[in-house]
Each structure stands twice: as structure tokens, then as C-alpha cells.
Amino acid sequence: MAAIAGISNTLIYVEKQLILPIGVKLVGSSLAARNSEQISGGFSWFLAAKLGYAAEAGADMYLADLFPEDIFSFAYAEIERKNLGVRDFAEAVGSRQVTPPDVVTIDGTLRFPDITPQAYDPFRPPAIQIPDQYSVYGYQCFTGVLENNGFEIPIYFLVESAELVFYAHNKPVEVVGVVKWSPGYEVAGHVLNGIVLAAALLLRR
What we know:
Layout: H1 2-5, E1 10-14, H2 16-27, E2 30-32, H3 45-50, E3 60-62, H4 68-76, E4 81-84, H5 86-94, E5 103-111, E6 134-136, E7 139-148, E8 151-158, H6 162-165, E9 171-187, E10 190-203
Parallel strand pairs: 4-5, 8-10
Antiparallel strand pairs: 1-10, 2-3, 5-7, 5-9, 6-7, 7-8, 9-10
């Protein structure tokens, strides 16, 4: 899927509750089949065919009916601000070049200071204990720290993602998320009124 969508990093987690509204925002909710390869919103039937979806005359394809990984493939290409560093993100939010609910991707090293991931056993996945949880815009979340060139920002992950994203601890990642309003905090000399709610996580190659 990564090669098809032009994604250089490895997708390890995508949250359908969040990637669906992101996909609707970027490519629309109903992807009507056309004779042409490309239609409005950047949707490509060539890409759809590669992902195993057939284009039939007069048919609609609804994002809500797709697997979250496929929604991600359609949406990722339409994200304008990709691979920001933490300082780049801080500057963009501080100058209001990025505002809620913009979608961004941010590169850095992901850490979970209060978590010690165990060795993964696919036959008996270890239980993950989350010490602190928060309600963020109605989603039950926990936080990670994304660090890049000495600067850090919090990243909010849905609790359901814990069993996978904890294994990205201390690894270089690309976070795909939606910016949400927050009370002000300071990063790299900029006062930010925005946090990132993670919809997908990729390991950087």
C-alpha cells in the first residue's frame, strides 16, 4: 500500500474514528466513478484499482465503507503540510499558517516517558497499562512526546491505539494528525494554541 500511495514510511497504525473525517475533509465522502482516471478532490481510480476496488460506471464509493488503511492512502496524498519538524510546526501554528482543523504530518522521535514497552508476542500480546488518560474533544486519549532537534510537543493518541503505538517508543516516526484548539503553551519561543490529535503513525525509514 505504501508504494502505491507514494508513502515512503511504514504505516503501523491508523485510527478509523479520525482518519474518516480527515478523508472526508480532503477527498470527499462519496467518490463517484467517472470515465476519467482522476476526479475532483484528488481521488484516483487508478489508485483505487491498485488497492483492489473496481470502478463501475455510475457507482459511488463511500469512504465510510473502506478499510482505514485505504482511507489513509487516499487522504495522505492530499495533505499539504507534510514532514514538518517540531520547530516548523510551532512556527506555523504560532503564525496561524496552521489552524484547527488543519491536517499535518510531523517528523520526530516518539517517546512515552511513563511507559516501558514489553517484548511483543503476537500469540500472547502483553496487556498495556496506561497510567494517565485524558478526555480530548470527546476522545479518550493518552499522550506521547514528539522530539525533533531539541524541541518537543505533546501528541494525543486514542487509547485504542496503545497496543501498537507503544512499540514505536524511542523510534523515528511520522505522525499524521489533525490540529485542535488548546490553551496556550510555549514551544521554540512560540505560543501555541493548538495540539495534535494523532490519526495515524508511520515508522520513518
